[in-house]
Amino acid sequence: MAETFDPWSPSFVADPYPAYAELRARGRVHWFEPTRQWLVPRHADVSALLRDRRLGRTYLHRFTHEEFGRTPPPAAHEPFHTLNDHGMLDLEPPDHTRIRRLVSKAFTPRTVERLRPYVHSLASELVSALVAEGGGDLLTAVAEPLPVAVIAEMLGIPESDRGQLRPWSADICGMYELNPSQETASAAVRASVEFSSYLRELIAARRKDPGEDLISGLIAAYDAGDRLSEQEMISTCVLLLNAGHEATVNTTVNGWWALFRHPDQLAALRADRSLLSTAVEELMRYDTPLQLFERWVLDDVEIDGTTIPRGSEVALLFGSANRDADVFAHPDTLDLSREDNPHISFSAGIHYCIGAPLARIELATSLAALLDQAPALRLAVEPERSANFVIRGLKELLVEV
Known about the structure:
401 residues; alpha+beta; three-stranded antiparallel sheet
């Protein structure tokens, strides 16, 4: 299996899709010894397991580490796990249900829609600056600052503090890669401590002087006597920031890199802006920003005659599922007009991305701004993939206008 699926190989990371096709052809589930996980490559299985309550993002609501046959994480990693384990992405009902309900009160469609003019104005400003320079790195000039600023604006993080957010996020997200190194873990722990300390002070300030921002909304949110604890608020803010920009940043650069390699599709989009909404969905499907999502097996499940016992971990291969020919016609073809597009880039089930509407606005807005203001945008240098497999992106994307 290792010769097919090798997430630490630069050549695999550069283009994992042929290996995924081989995995799907070989079967519905595969044991991968290096990470001790079951790989699930087909769309129907990934989609079903995301909704299957016999699997969970955590097991601690039902079992201790020992009961589940797992070794507790090292004590030195505690700040990361405290931060990570109190966010709704890594919780199961009833805590997940309670937190998501409370967050949803502050994360309403009206709140998201109210941000649209800000997103439009900022995207236009960022692209104008890129054009004035004659080009540059699309990643650092547009793809990154737009969603970071939007989620920071939404949370109410002062502009002067926003420069810290992406480095903290990048260090924390390093722990979501497969078999992270001790160096990666140390960086994640340090970022978790610093980010948590910063948010604790900001939350205290908002308690004294509430505003119209999401943090003030989270402090005020309650339902039938339920409230968010301070740790849950901190973890929720970090989750919203990390999830609120990592996928958007990488969809933007992965998407433009795909468009540059498919000039016919880029030409079609330039000629017909009505393709914008389907283009956003297709770019998310074609080169998925989050390639793999993990679940713990809380009760035995069977896939194609193979019993996966309680205590196991499954790796749901989003990138593979989004290229499954059983679901997508010509899955390896970039088709910006694709209407039937049930991609799972936003996940599914109770952990479906709460920020999906905002991400779609950001992606469509930045795409439109670049098409409008840089109609001759072109690649300057062939880009290099980042070393990460799970969170898929580029080191940079140098362009000329």
